[in-house]
Amino acid sequence: MVDIALLGSGGGMPTPERFLSSLLINYKGRKILVDCGEGTQVSMKILGWGFKSIDVICITHGHGDHIVGLPGLLATIGNSGRTEPLTIIGPEGIENIVNCLRVIVPYLPYEINIIENPSESLYISGLTISALELNHSTPCIGYSFYISRKPKFDQEKAILKEVPKTLWNTLQRGEIVVCDGKKYEPSMVLGSERRGIKISFITDTRPISTIIDFIKDSDLFICEGTYGKNKDLDKAINNKHMTFAEGAELALKGGVKELLLTHFTPAMVEPELYKDNAASIFPNTILGEDRLIKTLVFRD
Amino acid sequence: MVDIALLGSGGGMPTPERFLSSLLINYKGRKILVDCGEGTQVSMKILGWGFKSIDVICITHGHGDHIVGLPGLLATIGNSGRTEPLTIIGPEGIENIVNCLRVIVPYLPYEINIIENPSESLYISGLTISALELNHSTPCIGYSFYISRKPKFDQEKAILKEVPKTLWNTLQRGEIVVCDGKKYEPSMVLGSERRGIKISFITDTRPISTIIDFIKDSDLFICEGTYGKNKDLDKAINNKHMTFAEGAELALKGGVKELLLTHFTPAMVEPELYKDNAASIFPNTILGEDRLIKTLVFRD
What we know:
Chain A has 300 residues and is an alpha/beta fold. Helix content of chain A is 23%, strand content 28%. Chain A has helices spanning 40-47, 64-67, 70-79, 94-101, 155-160, 168-172, 210-215, 233-239, 244-253, 275-279, and strands spanning 2-8, 22-27, 30-34, 54-58, 86-90, 112-116, 122-124, 127-133, 141-149, 177-179, 182-184, 194-202, 220-224, 259-262, 285-287, 292-296. In chain A, the strands form three sheets. Chain A has a seven-stranded mixed β-sheet with strand order 6-5-4-3-2-1-16. In chain A, strand 2 (22-27) and strand 3 (30-34) form a beta hairpin.
């Protein structure tokens, strides 16, 4: 089980209705923040999930509407009593951006480790974080977060493999045991792999084909829908963003379970008016709003 | 007549109840912004006074709660269509801070002129802006804004000085006229100086004695009151801030007309509970809240 909260659902500039790009993932009490636009701290304060337990901050790119809130948040995390290191992941150039922004918060009571454009998946705070280079007007990466699920205990298999009953619990916990000169491995008492929970977060970008594989089978695909109207496709192309319909096409091709559109242009006052432009392509579409919370569970 | 709006009345971190330090001054449609904490743009959007006409941004100091919103605001001002240069005033070091923060908004359609710790008053957008070095944990300056008032036309004086009636209007507008070989000056038809409107803004600092002269006779003295309780004086001393009572003492000694306390610590949920700690010293005290608007007029 994992909880997510969309802290800000707007793009460009913060408004009274929508703060800027930010998503909080809460897994077993540890937090991963994705983007930190203006208003992130206010939404976090309303949610009340706490600041101290943020272990990782994933930044999609260095445009103001995705990162302005970062230095203030880093200060608040410091004031919350955190002393353990914090990891910031971002695209190429993120280290310089973070270091520049820290001109206003030079002293923090914890270390910051910065990882630029990771080419391999990272296992942090119980999740596997993967990144994908996107196609925006500045280096930008999308993220996926995968929570693996332990296989079930398989009693028939354990008996077949002649595993002593006294070892079943230990092996089930994932430990290897050597007993009476024989080596017992967890796979001897466990069933086949089970699907975990996958969340993907794609903003800001044009709908490039590599996204489809990257978001494959996501339980929740959070995707930018900067423009609701289909006829704003030219704006989407010029500004390297997507329309609702383009986000829905990706969701369909990626075989995701649910699409959550976000990052709406402030010029679009009522995104609901255009929801059908996505839902007619991918029915299980919901529109983002600030502090929308979802709990994702393992499917059976 | 001048309008002011307190855009954010909190200190430290933004909360759902209070955005961070920011004040907007609107004089004849031109705007001066003082500080730009997180949430500034949201309050501005609610107010609806516009972004394009911000000519000057005065920053008190480079702590996050006073400047985090700056890069986002600069982008929004750019998107509003502004192409005229914009002036940023701040303490020593502000140029480096602004340049660092601009890592996320490197391209703007207007020039930025930066003035560090001005030793002389500046006349911009119809106001005279003065700065005073304060005593905080980082270089910090307070500001005063003065709108001068033209003297009244003095008919008796004009007749006494034998000014031809045909020149009265021109001289009253402030122009010098040479007529029939004789030089006429505005002072020949104008009465004595009249007091203008003075607004002063002092945060963050300990209550140093130079503040008293600097805020002298202000119509509105906007002052930090980070701590409401008198017994938090030790915290105020340690963190280089002020209590409500200290702000009120300054207001009293400065002979100001009205005191507006702001920059409340987020730990103080109900500043109203401590209002009397200021009002018992300086009765004409009001407590800041986000988007509190005041219209100041010339006194007669």
